[in-house]
Design goal:
The structure is a homodimer of 146-residue chains. Chain A has 146 residues and is mainly alpha-helical. Chain A has helices at residues 6-13, 17-25, 44-57, 62-68, 79-108, 118-128; strands at residues 4-5, 33-35, 38-41. Chain A is 54% helix and 6% strand. The structure holds a DNA duplex (30 and 30 nucleotides). Chains A, B: Residues 1-71 form the HTH merR-type domain.
DNA sequence: GTGCCACTTCAAGTCGACTTGAGGTAAAGA
DNA sequence: TCTTTACCTCAAGTCGACTTGAAGTGGCAC
């Protein structure tokens, strides 16, 4: 039998069962069936969950993700939107690269005041002039449900 | 006079006044003084706000940001932590790069089912094996306060 | 067949990050 | 001087993304 019990999905995807139920309610995933009350999942749900996690990492809301991918995991909105999201993401990536470099510099530079360090200021300035930043939220909770 | 009125900061930083007050309450920024009731700011607050926005983009919470940078904008925690954050960020950046490529591929690939496309699956798999993703939140509201 | 216990539902609670609203105040123009 | 108006405070509300709690259920080991 190829179906996964919810407990197995929890274990393998590292996502709590409450989250799986929540995602189901939102239409982001679907159980392939039930064994009694227990949800059973197609193994493909693992890829789908990875896709959702990835989308969240990229700053998309659950609603946006639901809109981007049909329940079967296939991209469903038009290619223009997808391409636009890719561009948006590309800008974010470049900004994060600057921040990473800034952090590295701050960790390495012996100067006491980083705001006076030309390197640091130049890095900062490079992003301040960019598009308004899209905040990222904290990581999800631990896989245990209780 | 070199001080900026709050209205000016709102205008230049593209951040609503309510957010500035909120950040002040959280200890993330400070007004250099008041003109009557009105807050006045040192121009350096603009850089500090850029730094905060950048930190948010990178997925750090306001509390984390407050912990990373002293009120004067100087990094204050130890270099090890800074370097660790930079590494964490670097992993995230690589994952986002994969997502960007996946989106681009989805926008360009004429195949009807992307989950069956080897390119798409390979891209996805590359991130699924990585560290659990750190979700990003939606962009901030518009600069208008009402 | 009976008990355990991981699952179930559904409503309510939490958390971070702000926003909104009511009621107040002072700088600046008429 | 008087009014306007943009700021102020403080409490409460909102939103997304989940989590928690109470009460129920049914597969599986004994």
């Amino acid at each position: 039998m190829t179906e996964l019990d919810i407990a197995e999905v929890v274990q393998r995807a590292g996502v709590p069962a409450s989250t799986l139920r929540f995602y189901e309610e939102k239409g982001l995933i679907a159980a392939s069936g039930r064994r009694g009350l227990r949800r059973q999942y197609d193994p493909a749900v693992l890829e789908r969950l990875a896709l959702i996690a990835l989308g969240r990492t990229a700053g998309f809301s659950l609603d946006e993700i639901a809109r981007m991918f049909a329940p079967d995991g296939q991209p469903r909105i038009d290619r223009q939107v997808l391409a636009a999201k890719a561009e948006e993401l590309d800008r974010t990536i470049r900004e994060l690269g600057v921040l990473r470099d800034s952090l590295r510099h701050a960790a390495a530079c012996p100067a006491p005041s980083h705001m006076e360090c030309p390197t640091f200021r130049r890095l900062l300035k490079a992003t301040a002039t960019g598009t308004a930043a899209a905040p990222r939220k904290r990581a999800p909770r631990s896989p245990q449900e209780r």
